[in-house]
Amino acid sequence: MTRPDPEVQAVIDLATAHFPRLGTEMTDITEVRAFLAARPRPAVPPLPLARVTDEDADGVPVRVYHGSVHENAPVVLFCHGGGFALCDLDSHDGFCRALARATDAVVVSVDYRRAPEHPFPAAPEDAYTALLWTAATYPGRRTAVAGDSAGGNLATVLARLSRDRAGPGIAFQALYYPMLDPTRSRPSHRENGQGCFLTSDHLRWYWDGYLPEPADRNHPHAAPLAGAGLSGLPPAHVVTAGFDPLRDEGLAYAAALAAAGVSVVAHHYAGMFHGFLSMAPALPEAAAARDTAFAVLRTALHGE
Questions:
Q1: 9, 52, 286, 300: which one has the fewest Cβ atoms less than 10 Å from its Cβ?
Q2: 92 an active-site residue?
């Protein structure tokens, strides 16, 4: 079986060493979060922006990054990954700063309630509340939704909610290696389930915490690949990685959107792994891929 190039594998090994062994050696959410909080973090100065503020979006904490000084700059509502259970505004602060700068937009990062304390549908409903707040706070702005991993799930669910609840309008959805299928049944889960940072044990633990009710595993607001109904969604950009257990569900979702008549830009990086867009400082290919992803979103927002 093909494996990552040595320089890529070295980054995977380093990331793995600083991440808890979820679902096997570590299962208690308090212990997991304490492990992550205690990790050494590199002292990297934050990317400067015009303004960064923490706000209350009608009960949902958000962090707003002003990447533009223009009065009518477009807006990106961003949902962070972490299997619906981990990560927060701080974990994705650097990514959101880079996103705001590159897209010349206002980025609203959502601190939705996390599983297992708050299982589905808490996360998508919090994200939708933040979307309503964003539309009211920045009226008339061209707006996109974006997210990585579990956040990619929430972003495309927001696109569906926006369509089905008559707004707010969404112009574009940017889905970075989205986590979409609780069945975990596609070949990439078997091929990449161990040794590529994100593991099959992680994913089982994440989904079990997020969807404790079996009936919810077929709900389109939890599992966007579980049913049809994709027509009328906004154009999408889907990024996938060859050594990601989520590879095949991302590819399948891009194909399903296209089959439903949704305009899709798909970029697949055969030599990369889950989360690689956040590893831009460590890998030239990841840096180039992130530049491309942000350029696609900038074009969609500004019509360039």
A1: 9
A2: no
